[in-house]
Amino acid sequence: MVIAIIILIALVLYIIMVYNKLKRTQQQINEAWSNIDTHLKRRYDLIPNLVETVKGYAAHEAQTLEAVIAARNSAMNNQSADTTTRSKDENVLSGALKSVFALSESYPELKANENYLNLQKELVDTEDKLQAARSFYNTSVLSLNAQIDTFPSNIIAGNFGIKKQTFFELDEAEKEAVKEVPKVSF
After folding, report:
1. Domain 2-179, what architecture?
2. Whole-structure pTM value
């Protein structure tokens, strides 16, 4: 009888331990997503300043600038969307920003503008931080999904309704688009 009670207590403690580990990993994913949101907000705030600066030097590049604003607005309007939709929107915005940066190569006075250079530096810094935040998010998702896929934590996760999370990633078309060099024509 004593052995059965000890085994039962050990089993309950094990279940609690695995459950807590799963919940900690879920919280880590939430924190990582919050970090992504923080960096995205900063990027959204910097983009209008960048567009206004470029507009003064490259007025006839309205289509490129409008694409950046449209991509920014789409990404901002889909804040509550799922990870896949948000990934797609953010990657379109990143591509549009690359086109704006490519414009500076054709406009030496823009390239020398201190305000533009500062905005570009801040955006590059924000993009780097955003990439690190996405990497941390994906690492956390990998950890949770691996726990859910392995025995016996998969039983505990299933019984407590803990579900797999989606990675922040590109689809195949976006992967190809990101590899392309932005085209600037006059």
Report:
1. Up-down Bundle (1.20)
2. 0.74
